[in-house]
């Protein structure tokens, strides 16, 4: 029995991921049950290769997990503010912890189901999401429409999905935003973006 408790203690300790993303070093604490706790997943890496964030831009990371996308956006935006939301309180806690661990003070983390719990007046220059494949197309539609409402004119929405959802996202982007641009294609993931025109 004694041996089992030692293993449990080891399992309950945070896992630490070190990663170079967009020419900066990051450290991420994570734990079991949070998406991709063993390392930065391929979809996130593909998205981060192509996302453009200018200094001073305000950004939103939807479904932030332990924070890799939001924290990279925070470093790129400098004087801008990044809001990171997730429906999982454990993920939000780790995103907050990782913002501090990486010395990023321009970050706010919030518990929110999609964009539902954001303040009414919150508007963004850039919104990014690594959209899960198992949530149903209804949620993808809701997030796409809510992102359009929350972007300023000229604001950009970046998503990564599994390749199987690429055509669906193309349709959703065209219906809501009027256009779709594929940015990156991996074996299993596709990165796309669209812009709010007015």
Concise account of the structure shown:
The protein is α/β, with parallel strands linked by helices.
Describe this structure in words.
There is one protein chain. With 198 residues, this protein is α/β, with parallel strands linked by helices. It is 35% helix and 30% strand. The protein has 6 helices and 9 strands. The chain has helices spanning 2-12, 42-50, 68-77, 89-101, 137-150, 166-177; strands spanning 15-21, 24-30, 59-62, 82-86, 107-111, 124-130, 151-162, 181-185, 189-195. The strands form 2 sheets. It has a 7-stranded mixed β-sheet with strand order 5-4-3-6-7-9-8, sandwiched between helices. The radius of gyration is 17 Å and the shape is globular. The model has no long low-confidence stretch (mean pLDDT 93).
What secondary-structure arrangement, pairings included, does this model have?
Blueprint: H1 2-12, E1 15-21, E2 24-30, H2 42-50, E3 59-62, H3 68-77, E4 82-86, H4 89-101, E5 107-111, E6 124-130, H5 137-150, E7 151-162, H6 166-177, E8 181-185, E9 189-195
Parallel strand pairs: 3-4, 3-6, 4-5, 6-7
Antiparallel strand pairs: 1-2, 7-9, 8-9
Helix pairs in contact: 5-6
């Amino acid at each position: 029995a004694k041996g089992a408790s030692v293993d449990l203690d080891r399992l309950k300790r945070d896992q630490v991921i070190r990663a170079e993303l967009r020419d900066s070093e990051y450290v991420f604490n994570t734990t079991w049950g949070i998406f991709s706790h063993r390392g930065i997943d391929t979809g996130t890496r593909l998205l981060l290769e192509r996302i453009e964030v200018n200094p001073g831009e305000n950004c939103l990371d939807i479904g932030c997990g332990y924070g890799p996308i939001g924290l990279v956006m925070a470093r790129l935006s400098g004087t801008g503010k990044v809001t990171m939301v997730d429906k999982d309180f454990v993920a939000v806690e780790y995103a907050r912890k990782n913002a501090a661990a990486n010395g990023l003070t321009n970050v706010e983390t919030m518990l929110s189901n999609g964009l539902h719990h954001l303040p009414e007046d919150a508007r963004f220059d850039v919104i990014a999401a690594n959209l899960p494949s198992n949530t149903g197309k209804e949620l993808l539609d809701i997030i796409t429409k809510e992102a359009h409402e929350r972007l300023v004119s000229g604001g950009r929405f970046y998503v990564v999905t599994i390749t199987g959802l690429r055509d669906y996202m193309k349709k959703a982007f065209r219906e809501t935003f009027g256009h779709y641009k594929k940015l990156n294609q991996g074996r299993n993931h596709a990165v796309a973006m669209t812009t709010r025109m007015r």
